[in-house]
Design a protein that fits this description.
3 helices; 5-stranded antiparallel beta sheet; 4-stranded antiparallel beta sheet; elongated; alpha+beta; 23% strand; 21% helix; 166 residues; 2 domains
């Protein structure tokens, strides 16, 4: 997985403002908007722009109704970025933008799950491999927490695994 290092709060510098037309956005934002809205037309209702009015900002609420799981997409320095919970990535960390968009498809369809470990600085990580194995590695490793959560964007695949249950 292509995980960006740093804080997912980077998107907090965006102030959502209403945009009436996409032609006012930068070419990078226009391209992203076109690709996203062809895949997810309903997301247009969540679209706005950053403070400059030039970059796209979309915040889609999670079907789980957990506001901490909102999916945020924006363009920063010409690069599309994706934030889910406390995890984020940038399109330039992927082989190409299509891989980035395929990953987004996987997130919204719950084919990508996240491991949430409250005792780590980077609490959210993408699960690579079988969920149970990844969770067991964390729960039995050094400084193991008492429990971890497996989280999906929609909430349909959420579960909590406890060390005592292993």
């Amino acid at each position: 997985m292509r995980e960006a290092r740093g804080r997912a709060e980077a998107c907090d510098s965006f102030l959502a403002v209403d945009i009436s037309t996409l032609h006012e956005l930068s070419r990078h934002s226009q391209a992203l908007a076109q690709q996203l809205f062809s895949r997810f037309p309903e997301w247009r209702a969540y679209a706005s722009a950053d403070r400059s009015g030039r970059e796209l900002f979309i915040e889609v609420p999670s079907p789980s109704e957990d506001p901490a799981r909102s999916l945020r997409l924006f363009v920063e320095d010409g690069v599309p970025c994706l934030v889910v919970g406390e995890w984020h990535t940038h399109a330039d960390l992927w082989p190409d933008e299509q891989h980035f968009l395929s990953f987004l498809d996987d997130v919204v369809s719950d084919r990508v799950l996240f491991l949430v470990v409250s005792t780590r600085a980077a609490r959210w990580t993408v699960i690579e491999g079988p969920c149970l194995e990844v969770a067991m590695d964390v729960l039995t490793g050094p400084s193991a927490p008492d429990a971890v959560r497996i989280v999906s964007w929609t909430g349909a695949k959420d579960q909590t695994l406890r060390r005592e249950d292993l």
